[in-house]
Design a protein that fits this description.
Oligomer: single chain
Helix content: 55-70%
Keywords: Membrane, Transmembrane, Transmembrane helix
Radius of gyration: 27 Å
Number of domains: 3
């Protein structure tokens, strides 16, 4: 039996013991929650051992694995307890707990024969800053009105370090390596996702007078946190789209899926002042439709035809796709502000045009656009339009 297999079995046994402890506690001492927490801790430790599978052999890599395990366990303890509440304590914990994830990410993303020391150091520094941002978010109730200043400062430092990491990767990359495959771009994506998700979750859990956790100002200055969250969300969306697979249809599906991150956009006084809970998903829906329309036009046969039939088919497809744009415009108005920008007859007229689009489309993306147009048109007709049957006055 290998050492990693033994670690996996030990982790599985620890999880089983944790489950048994929770079952026994619920039956015999349901009022004692400390025993339940012990069972949850056992399940978590088992998962950590199964994921990392640290070796028992006395090697440097084995020592690194065990440090990883203790770092994860310590991070969870810091999160669920009030042992760390001050910003200086958060910085010290982040400087210790963020080193192993950064080193692990560096050795996984960089090629084995070309791991630059500068890249590893910048990844470890970025990991420490990301850990600090996450801990600041978790300990926001303790930081109170200093949270905004601390969060903006750490986000600015992380942005500068990420840019330096990109410059370092460009300087040390191999000649045949493409720009979009640089590991530092994944670092930028991770950093913006962390900032975006943390600020969105912070906005959703508003408690009393602690949030938006800004300092008291006499000049009624608009908080910067929502704007920073929206900018980080948009950058995350762009980065995910740039890392999409090269295959045509899978690329379009990937980009549509990337629009899910736009639910992290926040209402602010600078960019999205009309954003509300009821129209939070509008950006995702309309962006997906825009991606389908753009991709269908780009992949049409009209740009690369070999016969007159392909040219005629491409022209027909182009016209049908252009007719779907007013439908998207109307849908955007109804979803975002519940306002009908154009006449409802436009939707009724463009609905049947989606069926020939299925026949004349030259890509799977066009089929997806046609199906989306049919579904959205039917939804608007039944849910938003007060359609009345025709009655002759005579």
């Amino acid at each position: 039996m290998t050492e990693s297999a033994a670690s996996g079995i030990a982790g599985l046994c620890t999880m089983v013991c944790g489950v048994l402890i929770i079952i026994a506690q619920s039956i015999h001492v349901p009022e004692d929650q400390r025993i339940r927490y012990t069972g949850v801790l056992g399940i978590f430790l088992g998962l950590v051992f199964i994921v990392f599978r640290p070796d028992m052999t006395p090697t440097l890599y084995s020592a690194f694995q065990w440090i990883e395990v203790f770092s994860v366990i310590s991070f969870v303890i810091v999160m669920v307890t009030d042992s760390v509440t001050q910003f200086l304590q958060i910085i010290l914990c982040s400087a210790v707990l963020g080193l192993c994830p950064g080193f692990r990410a560096a050795i996984m993303l960089y090629p084995e024969d070309n791991i630059p020391v500068s890249g590893v150091l910048l990844f470890m520094l970025s990991s420490c800053i990301i850990t600090c941002i996450i801990l600041c978010f978790i300990k926001a109730q303790h930081l109170k009105h200093t949270f905004e200043k601390r969060f903006i400062k750490m986000s600015t430092i992380l942005t500068v370090v990420s840019i330096v990491a990109v410059i370092s990767d460009i300087a040390t990359r191999e000649n045949h390596q493409m720009f979009l495959t640089l590991p530092s771009l994944k670092l930028i994506l991770c950093a913006n996702l962390v900032i975006s998700i943390c600020l969105k979750l912070l906005a959703l859990r508003q408690i009393g007078e602690l949030l938006p956790l800004t300092e008291a100002k006499d000049d009624k200055e608009v908080p910067y946190l929502p704007t920073i969250g929206s900018i980080a969300t948009f950058i995350s969306f762009v980065m995910i789209c740039l890392m999409a697979p090269t295959s045509s249809f899978y690329h379009d599906v990937w980009c549509c899926g990337a629009s899910l991150v736009l639910v992290c956009l926040q209402k602010d006084m600078r960019i999205f002042s009309s954003l509300r809970e009821d129209n939070q998903t509008t950006a995702t829906k309309i962006t997906s439709l825009a991606i389908l329309v753009t991709a269908t036009l780009y992949r049409s046969d009209i740009w690369n035809y070999n016969s007159s039939w392909m040219f005629a088919r491409g022209v027909t497809e182009l016209i049908l796709v252009l007719f779907s744009i007013p439908n998207c415009y109307i849908l955007w108005g109804l979803l975002y502000d519940n306002v009908l920008f154009l006449s409802e007859q436009v939707v009724i007229f463009t609905l049947p045009l989606n069926f020939p689009l299925i026949l004349y489309s030259s890509s799977y993306t066009g089929w997806a656009l046609a199906v989306a147009g049919i579904v959205s048109s039917i939804w608007m007709m039944f849910a938003k339009f007060a359609l009345q049957p025709y009655h002759d006055d005579d």
